Amino acid sequence: MAPPGVTPELVPISVAKLASDFSHVPEKFVLAKGGRPLTVFDDYSKEVPVISLKGIDSESERSRIVAEIGHACAEWGIFQIIDHDVSTDILNRMLEITMGFFNLPLEEKTKYAGKAGSFPVGYASGSHRPDDNLLDWRELFVHRCLPESIRETEYETWPEKPDGYRKTLTEYSDTMDRLMTLLLGLVSESLGLPTNYIKNVGGGEQSEQKVLLNYYPQCPQPDRTLGLRDHTDYGSLTVLQQNGVGGLQVCKEETDTWFAVEPIPGALTCNLGDQIHVLSNGKYRSVEHHVVVNSNHTRLSVVTFANPSRKSLMGPAPELISETNPPKYRNYTFEEYLPIGFAMKTRKAYDAVLLEGATE
């Protein structure tokens, strides 16, 4: 059963239809010259770390993996994983239902449109912010999948088309939850903290999971717009699956240089969000990133976010604070942080919780 009502403001126009009907990008999507992409979608960098999880159950290999993850988190805030346990079958089925949904007629997709002024859940085209003056070259669908109490409430509002959508999303959500619990544990260990530290600070089994489906159609002028503008993720950890078409680019802070992340077959891309940046007291990076589009290929991505529960108290981990490493950020609840991160008013939302006099 679809959610009642449709909010036209969140679906001002179908980006997929624009891609098929227009030979130019409408003004609403055009970035100012200083904000346009400088690197094409497939000029891939070999510098973004790729980490094998093979042998993770052995003490020596786990030590290697923890060390590699720690280095990647400090230097980049992003890494790709291979030799993980997520099956090719569920990855392929998730991409199939993603493409199947976005290929539905617009009138079917808008049955699931998000509501203006509510938490961004549901289908949208261009943006899920009704007051956006600039639109992204994408269509999207946001699901809240965990904790179980949220899934039980929202499951019946998930699309019934294409066939198997709800069942596949449930299986995918559970699979990603297991993987991200493992990854959060490895990040915790790399900081010298207990394995379950980050997960528990974020609410344990009450921590939240969102799954975002993105559809980036071919673009007639990919040098004038972005599929998704510059931002950091406001949660703890993000895991990205993509369909083999590049587009994700990350910024290396020291040089303010953008690097294109290669879509390695079978790999999953992991990036840190603002909450781990703050918890680590700035040792680890919440990486700034955006998505570029292209004129020849449609890109799909499925993005899973591990976020703290709303009432979780966030801030620098006391175990990492010392006289030589004083806190840089104030404490706050994740519920307090949500509007800061969601507003995307600055390149680095976590600057809003920086203590007076502290520097990055």
UniProtKB/TrEMBL annotation:
InterPro entries reported for this sequence = DIOX_N, IPNS-like_FE2OG_OXY, IPNS-like_sf, Oxoglu/Fe-dep_dioxygenase_dom, Plant_2OG-oxidoreductases
The answer to whether keyword Phosphoprotein applies is no
Q: Which Gene3D superfamilies match?
A: B-lactam Antibiotic, Isopenicillin N Synthase, Chain
Q: Which SUPFAM superfamilies match?
A: Clavaminate synthase-like
| UniProt domain Fe2OG dioxygenase: residue ranges | 207-308
In the record, what terms sit under GO molecular function? Answer: metal ion binding; oxidoreductase activity
Which keywords label this protein? Iron, Metal-binding, Oxidoreductase
> Which protein family is it in?
Belongs to the iron/ascorbate-dependent oxidoreductase family.
| Descriptive protein name | Flavonoid synthase I
Name the source organism: Conocephalum japonicum
**What is the name of the gene encoding this protein?**
FNSI
